[in-house]
Design goal:
There is one protein chain. This protein has 143 residues and is an all-alpha fold. It folds into two domains: 3-34; 44-140, no CATH class. It has eight helices and no strands.
Length: 143
């Protein structure tokens, strides 16, 4: 066979360079995907629990906003606010109806601040129930 029928031959250095660039790209993508979360509140299980609670209550419409509101609710409870007062604060500051604010706060109680809510209600909280978000918040504000 003549070389014209086979087609042009690609130099080896070009093939090696393409493989090297592809391998570098794949390695970078894998490294980013496997990187540890950078924030203490990036807890997949708690977020899933919160999402399920919002969905169950029928108020899941903007997860990121509601997550911030739920964690704000937990900070208020951890700092000593009554659970109902913290819910009213959500209503006032977030312009939510009572049903929406109560759905957010109920989901947040389970997902982000179980121990603090139990303690606020006078119940003994088993440390194993404490959520990563509230533990990180307590550590940050221990002074």
């Amino acid at each position: 066979m003549s070389p014209d029928l086979v087609g042009p031959v690609t130099p080896k250095w070009r093939v090696r360079r393409s493989c090297l660039v592809g391998a570098t790209f794949v390695a970078a993508v894998v490294a980013v995907a496997m990187a540890a979360p950078s924030h203490a509140d990036d807890d997949y299980e708690s977020d899933q629990s919160f999402s399920r609670g919002l969905d169950y209550a029928g108020v899941l419409f903007n997860f990121n906003l509601e997550k911030r509101q739920g964690q704000r609710y937990c900070r208020a409870v951890v700092d000593g606010s009554d659970t109902l007062d913290a819910t009213y604060d959500l209503m006032r500051d977030g312009a939510y109806s009572f049903d929406v604010a109560n759905g957010i706060s109920s989901a947040a109680m389970v997902a982000y601040c179980t121990c603090s809510v139990m303690a606020r209600q006078g119940l003994d909280a088993d440390p194993i129930l404490c959520r990563p978000y509230e533990l990180a918040y307590l550590r940050e504000n221990a002074n």
